[in-house]
## 1
Amino acid sequence: MDDINSKLSQLYDNELNQDQLDDVLKNLNSNLQLQKKYTSYGLISDMLSSSPAEKVTFVDFAKKVLSNRLVGNGLTAAATIFLTVLFLYDPEANRLAESSEQSRQIRDAVASEEAAIISNNVMQNEIRHLISLDNNYQPMSSIDLSPVGYNQIKGSPDTFQKGKKKVRIRITNNQSGLNEIRFFDYGHTTVYLYPLDDKIVSVSGDLSQDEVEKIIKVLIN
Amino acid sequence: MNEGSKNESDIIKKIQNGDNSAYNVMILKYQNRIYSTLLGFLKSPQDAEDLMQQAFVKGWQNINKFRGESSFYTWIYRIAINLAKNHLKKSSVVNSSKNISSEQNEIEFSVDLNPLHELEREQLKFRLKSFIAKLPESLRTAFLMREEEGKSYEEISRATDCPIGTVRSRIFRAREEILNFFEDEIRNG
């Protein structure tokens, strides 16, 4: 582990050899802790170099970064993506047709130029998958998450509950070609996309990656 | 500082060849600095965060126009500043009672600070620098030559008469120590 951390420090300093770069980038993009560390390197540099006029609420932002909410997959912070994701995944959110204000916001967001750019270019596979997900998911009636403490909610077959915590799970065909785990943050909701063979398992809720992986293991078994 | 191009030119090539994950690395590295800069202009954390995101999206959209004539940071910084200026212009149109130019806004922002946050920031910065000052001399020297003077590992190696591997190790160890300290400070408020 020290080796990858050391290489991360070299990457930050632009001192990696080209033959090491791919390996480090791969590790960095798949490991939340490394992403957090890399962001923190930037935070420290920023702290050492800043002038007073540039930092009004720096401490608040630092807290936010270090609590992981802004780390994620970088561009996933784009508001339009989050709005779309919130609608599609938030177990607490109303359905589109049931909330006129949310409906308007979602329509505007999805139709916006920024959303088009992002969906076409930045993370095309993931976004395409997210946007199509609402219509293409498979029924979840046969899934038993009781080994990890979640019970299916009656009348909402894709939603499971453990105490106050809710999680929404959907399985779709992997038509987008997604081949690595992706996650998106929106407030307290995180959406994970897990490619499994020709399927994608989408898990959303206020969950850590460890919790999601336990759920995925149950699904696999 | 940290704006060298050895790795970054390789990363930029990857991005220009369509590797989105490589762009993510650039965002992770520079988002704090861009955010801080925007916050200085806009004073609104929400606006700064939104424009930071827009700047990186715009940067991605135009990455093929990046020729490496400046560092990536300088390039994305300019994008962010232009977005901030446009944002301020729009704001000044909406708020006709404050019909002032973005240039005037910049000047006003630089003197109109929130004293509480500024005090917190300065205190944190002071504690951070105090901590760095207490690091073992070999770690501190290597780290500061890199961070504050922007020297390459090779330059530090020559200046300190140490093998590059030692320089690499010292900078890494210094970062680990500082990161632990920094996270404790932030966590404990």
## 2
Amino acid sequence: MDADTILADITQMLAQVIGEDYLLEVDVTMDTAFSGDLELESIEFVALAGLMKEHYGAAVDFVGFLADMDLHEIIALRVGQVVDHIWLCLEAVGSRG
Amino acid sequence: MADVVANGVRFHVQQLTPPPGFAPDSPDSGEARPSVVFIHGLVMDNLSSFYYTLANPLAAAGADVLLYDLRGHGLSERPPLGYALEDSVEDLVGLLFELGIDGPVHIVGNSYGGTVGLAFAMAYPSRVASLVLVEGHFAVQGWGEEMARTLWGIAFGMELEEARTWVASAGRKMTRMAGKADALINGTSLVEDLLTAVPLPRQPLASLACPVLAMYGDESDVIDRARDLASLVPDFTLNILQGCGHSILMEVPAHLRAVLAWWFAGRVGPAPLYQPPVLDPPSASAAHPLAELVAG
């Protein structure tokens, strides 16, 4: 799975969480900040992380990813950081399997 | 699973498990992982405050974590009724049942979430392995009126023209948060239920079997509750944070994580003490970095 596919997946999940109408006004890129650009409420980011966990399963470790960040780092997260993390986890599984 | 119906209400829940590599949960072999439930505070709070600060690190350290939005909060359903403390306790009972969690759990409660944890531990002592209060409210005489007054203050503040203008200009996030708080305060029985709240009985606290850890800021408006509890609860560890107020979860999460790690590792040695940051005195040649914030 490449980064573009993961970005498209996340964009689709974002639409589920905050609604397609709002998302139509924003071009989601790797540089888009969840809080600063998308104005995601903190509880909406949690819901998004829950959807990603369901979608990618145990192969992607979101707990470890977020546990290593402090509050300000999570608030400042950009879409590209999450895409990169998912890609690295999936690559690791692929190379093992 | 993100939505669970319990006690007749749809709750938004998040369950976090340790990353791959941790031993699977196996209660039969005596290696059961600790099961930790986080309960957030009232109105402007939801499960994300714990999710962003303590929950993921605790899961990463090997705990099974359950977070949920209280009824009317976050992404949970907002029914018009059922906001008494007893309802909150029965909501938790229902959630644990629906999720098949029947062993003792460790409860971590922030502010009102601590009150729920205390009431749950008193009503169902065998279900609680330990209780962690983060600035927990202790339902003493007048507690409900005090909480209701605070909520009225928020509601009144939001009615002011300046506040409405500011919220409208602050964008999607603030508009939604203000709207939810308004709907909860003015569209449900929350305030009414708080006004009719009865104090927690003091005598059962003296026979509370589970260990209790309490973390409070020494400048908090509920620090007296901590001292009150310390005089009543047998196994009570009080961790006071100098120079901090009520919002220690957001202000100093790193210290709270350190104390939780000590708590879950078996309380070996003294509990970590909070060291307030030492700020350099301002010099004539360079303004202190905080000066701009203070002035602003």
## 3
Amino acid sequence: MYPKGLYSFFLFLLCNFGINAQKNTTEISFQLLYNTVPLELGQSYPISGRDSLKIDFLKFYVSNITFFKDGKQIGKSTEKYHLIDAQNSSLYRTSYTVKNKKFDTIKFTIGLDTKTQKKGIQGGVLDPTTRMYWTWQNGFINFKIEGSSRLCNTRKNKFQFHVGGFQEPYNTTQVLSLACVASKSLTIDVDIASFFNVVSLSKTNTVMSPNKNAVMVSKVLATLFSIHEN
Amino acid sequence: MKIKRIIIGAFIVLTATYCGVKKNVLDSPEYFPVPHYNIDNNPISKAKTTLGNNLFYDPLLSANNSISCASCHSPHAAFAHTDHDLSHGIHDSIGTRNAPPLFNLAWQEHFMWDGAIDNLDAQALAPISHATEMGSSINEIVGKLKNHPKYPGLFNDIYKDSLITGERILKVLAQFQVSLISNNSKYDQIQRGTATFTQQEISGYNIFTSNCASCHAEPLFSSYGFANNGLAIDSTLKDIGRQKITKNPMDSMLFKIPSLRNLAYTFPYMHDGRFNTLREVLKHYTQGVQKSPSLHTALKNGITLTKKEQTDLITFLGTLNDRLFISSKKHQINRDFFIKNEGE
């Protein structure tokens, strides 16, 4: 039998840790935007003068959020995977404990890393019912946008970007480092309008498998993320 | 000190026992290699295998409740689709490839003829979602199972809650599939020392080892890699095989190497079921191989076999048929489960 004091000591450690954890919590939010305004699914957005587009579906994974100070990693997310779904809300919030909050860079993966991809069927936000696991080949879709625009010479004018693939030479998983000022809450803007400014829907509107186009699109998607300036 | 030693001893014994149990959990013979399938991600249990069996035979998995996995993978055909060059699915739509047999899947790294999928748990998503196979989706199936009179209870028995998720459905299906182990052919009996080859079978075995074994390696009778075996491209299907997945021209016409086990039950042969008999297959290998840059090196100089050698080889291949496997009750439909359902 352990002496009673030892239990108290553990209890003390636990409480202490809990308090510290609370003190160092940083809330990270991902804000989905269209031209600086919160994104709304099904809304008609003007594009290239006379035309317009509608987004019906937008989901993507963000994983392995880590915090850096002077190039050294000082914090890491306990929750490894986040599935951001425009259907739920244009604002996605998650909290982390970062020691002393003094970070100058936030780093994260857009999509899922190779190890997770290779593991195949998993639960939670990785469950295949999220419609983010390919049905006809390996791995997860990292970023999925669907919608329509008259610019697309496709059936029902649909555009479908199922951006995935983790095996070289068509690895679409992007790792992003953003410089930031440490604070209790940090918002990362994801402005989808920029995507359609770069990717011309009349030329590129269907990306459904890991290939050159998917890699190109994944690089464009990575440019949509920026730290929100207060 | 003595107590400490006893505890450590007990720990070692328990660990060893645990590892021993884990090692044999797939019930495979000693001469089989280490399985590729990671059991740790999907611990084996009888309840899961039984539930997986029910799902495998349940047409509820298709959009209009007409097609089950077994529609194209029937037990008497070693879980292939005998007599169909290309398999047909929902609304009598015809697919583009021959349904491969299902056995010894735990030893396979890649699935589908082009290796599009390298995870057995994920494989079922493909036929479930394909418009010409089951035309459904995992989400649709989750919905149907949640409202089913029996399935929630069965999931509850296994997971201690009645939550039905895509992950659980797929892992339970995979569990049934890894239980499909074919290891009771005459060849297997010979490995265990309970049978012997005839003279003709020995002759056939020698022809096999010098001509076929580089791709169809023992004891699974496939390396389960990919090869271009010199088939001319079918002008109606234009199937380029593995190249579709890797986009590498050197993978043109490469298909997954099938096992030579259970050939008596799995005709027609090849990815598009173009050959009905083993004679036709051997005619291809001896006379019909098309030269191309991606042709497998073992076929570059051609295979020469006399008529008698071909007969001996086919006789040897007969020793790889596993009648016990195709007739095993435990792999077949659980009629009680379905009959009672209809009465409800």
